[in-house]
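Field reference: sequence -> structure
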Amino acid sequence: MENTNKKSSVNIGQKILKCGIVSWIIIITIWGLGSLAYDEYFLPSPKETIDSLKLLIQNGTLGGDIAASVGRVVKGWLLSIVFAVPLGLLVGNFKPVRWLVEPILSFFRFVPAIALTTLFLMWFGVGEESKVALIFYAAFFPIFVNTIAGVASTDKSLIEAASCMGAKKARVFFTVVVPSAVANIYTGIRLGLSSAIICVIAAEMLVGSDGLGYLINSSKLYYKTSWAFAGIVTLALIGFTADRILQFIGKKKLKHFGVK
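Structure field:
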């Protein structure tokens, strides 16, 4: 009985650690203690941040900024999936295409999206198009590179077995190569989402008139550091929630493709 109780206590402790509650308690405690040594302008406390969140929600500012940022992220991210996945499958599966395309794309992969802000503003204007284009560019390469990696990691024996059974190249591609690459594509899509969120904040800080990036950047004009913290916390919650949703979908719908 005593051993059973000890095991139960250990399991409960592991579950508590696994869910992350302890980590958050530690972080918030350190943040709260650190804020005691500084004023609100330099380091607002957790309570002051929550008060700012409530105020921004009540006056409608936060809701509008969230809608603006999320809309841009979704547009750019979905566009990057539509273009990066087929191109990655094509480049990964056909060597002549890879030789032709990969050197160019590999070169631009190391050019950060923020470095192209000025060019995109000149080409697409100061409206939504330039921001969505930047997000598309930032999210494209993680998805593209992971898709190529997924194709490259396909078990050659499976391809040979399918070919020996009389399957044509197109059938082998869609029944063997694509399913084998799904797990890597899924990883690339998740990484692309994080890149999209990072990029939208940077774009809104530089050229935006709304959105969470604009909220964080404009907080300095009003000497409201707590607004910046409120924007950062909101951004983190959005990213965390979106990633958890993707993980849930992956585990439920793509488990048979090797997604864990």
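Note: The chain has a mean pLDDT of 84.
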